[in-house]
Write a structure and sequence with these properties.
About 35% of the residues lie in helices and about 20% in strands. It is α/β, with parallel strands linked by helices and about 325 residues long. The chain has a single domain (about 5-335), classed as UDP-N-acetylmuramoyl-L-alanine:D-glutamate ligase (3-Layer(aba) Sandwich), CATH 3.40.1190.20. It has an 8-stranded mixed sheet with strand order 4-1-7-8-9-10-11-12, sandwiched between helices.
Length: about 325
């Protein structure tokens, strides 16, 4: 059935302030560059630049930051008419340091933020039944009313025949208890067709061992979450999804299917400048490939290429590649096949 949109993304948006002083410790940063960010927003922009018709369901305040976010999205050609402005809440912001190869500190400013206050009424005003793919982030489930609104949107999308995609998006400091993260992710899986996440995120979604269940919030780090990843993947697939897509950094991606098949899509070697946003770039490319019936392998290869390009750049949404840029990038590697 023909749909108005290829992709509808739901979740957070923000003003992202990226350090211009690359390599400097956070305390020594002198200036920042202003971009737009937020995982579902980044994925939406990435898919749009590749050519999908996209819409975004986020929320911003009636503040200049909200104006900044909407202005960027409108310039990108993303349909923003369904983004509510919430006078009682603020548009969110993130401040990010860049210390390659492995330190990328970030600080969220999301107290009383607009996007976590998306409601069921906001969902009813959005074209959830007019998209082929509906994607949401795990952080959506961290608080009400966004939690109920997101689950409601996933239900509507599924009923209308859309493919529902969950980006696990584990952000420990956005949860009152990191164990609640796994509880909410598992509760949502019955509505999900495809799960995308890193090894740490997949493990965090399950928290299967007794030792993990006893861990305190202060002890949990998003740098590494221990666990049996293979067991976690099997448990996720048993709960409903047809596929779990594991992002494995420089190695590329693995697509684990319900029938037990695993598809390995190798990555592309690049020198890392900034890893922040690479996973979202992967999501935009991967969903473009699925929307064009490319199959799991080629879709994941496109996602890998998009991620590899973005890790060489300063920011995230503002630096997502076009399809022409991807084609030029992968040509020396023999393309995506």
């Amino acid at each position: 059935m023909e749909k108005t949109y290829d992709l509808l993304n739901m979740g957070r948006s923000s003003l992202d302030l990226y350090a211009n002083d690359v390599g400097a410790p956070f305390v020594d940063i002198q200036s920042f560059a202003a971009y737009v960010g937020g995982s579902p927003t980044n994925i939406c922009v990435g898919a749009r630049r590749l050519g999908l018709k996209t819409a975004l369901l986020t929320a911003v305040g009636t503040d200049p930051v909200g104006d900044f976010i909407l202005n960027f999205l409108n310039r990108e050609g993303i349909d923003t008419q369904y983004i509510p402005r919430k006078p009682a809440h603020r548009s969110s912001a993130v401040v990010l340091g860049i210390e390659p190869p492995d330190k990328f500190p970030l600080v969220y400013y999301r107290e009383n933020c607009a996007d976590i206050n998306l409601t069921i009424d906001d969902v009813l005003n959005a074209p959830v039944d007019e998209c082929r793919f509906f994607q949401f982030a795990g952080t959506n489930l961290s608080k009400e009313p966004s939690r109920s609104a997101t689950l409601f949107a996933a239900e509507l999308a599924r009923q209308s025949g859309a493919t529902v995609v969950l980006d696990v998006d584990f952000r420990p400091d956005q949860w009152h208890d990191v164990r609640a993260f796994g509880v909410q992710i598992r509760a949502a899986l019955r509505l999900v067709d495809v799960v995308i996440g890193t090894q740490d995120e997949v493990n965090a979604a399950l928290l299967t061992s007794p030792e993990q269940m006893k861990v305190s919030h202060s002890q949990m780090s998003d740098a590494h979450v221990a666990g049996d990843t293979d067991q976690a993947i099997r448990a996720l697939l048993a709960a409903g999804p047809q596929a779990v897509v594991l992002k494995v950094g420089a190695l590329g991606a693995q697509v684990h299917l319900k029938d037990g098949q695993t598809i390995h899509a190798p990555g592309f070697p690049v020198e890392v400048y900034n890893i922040l946003g690479a996973g979202d770039a992967f999501g935009g490319g991967f969903l473009y490939g699925l929307a064009h019936d490319w199959g799991w392998y080629k879709a994941a290869r496109l996602g890998n290429a998009c991620g590899a390009i973005v890790v060489t750049r300063h920011g995230c949404a503002n630096f997502m590649p076009t399809l022409a840029e991807v084609a030029a990038f992968v040509a020396p590697y023999g393309g995506l096949d």
